Amino acid sequence: xxxxxxxxxxxxxxxxxxxxxxxxxxxxxxxxxxxxxxxxxxxxxxxxxxxxxxxxxxxxxxxxxxxxxxxxxxxxxxxxxxxxxxxxxxxxxxxxxxxxxxxxxxxxxxxxxxxxxxxxxxxxxxxxxxxxxxxxxxxxxxxxxxxxxxxxxxxxxxxxxxxxxxxxxxxxxxxxxxxxxxxxxxxxxxxxxxxxxxxxxxxxxxxxxxxxxxxxxxxxxxxxxxxxxxxxxxxxxxxxxxxxxxxxxxxxxxxxxx
Length: 258
Description:
globular, 9% helix
């Protein structure tokens, strides 16, 4: 089921356009101010390290989408969303375009690949922060609950689903919360989100998702590609029976060389 796009007041500011933006311009665009520039106050003291802090440096990368049945590449996460604020694909990797080179020819989809920063956490879920996304208000790649699903669950016995899109940051391990996201900005429909749903295997490059239900349960989370956008669900058969043929996919982290 697809929606008709509605008018709304949100004005998207691309992430690359934020560089060098003053606080006044950020405020006018509905963005938070820059953090204050702090002067050093005497000698620094050691602070306790968070138990969940990562000891692995962040990886700047593109995310490749692979057909699980054939291993064939379908493309990379696009730097743009579709008109409903859902993640879609760029068919060609274009490193220069991800850096904002205005003279670079765009891939055949009309958008460059999405550049992200992934910082794996020790034994826990990670955030995936975008670098060249279309809307600086939603700088994390996360899960957005599907508007036709009746609750915040991903029930493995039903066709419950969600979208992949741009979201504001939520706490790791948090159940779904109402927060700003690209789907709501595009449609006006408030839906819950989670940002820290990602697990990055630094050996194989695999990037997997894990939705957290309101009761804390962790359903198996399958990733799919349908009608030109990316989704997740807990039941592949039920989802496809309701919404139509779906390509089930894996995500793979492709470190950027640009």
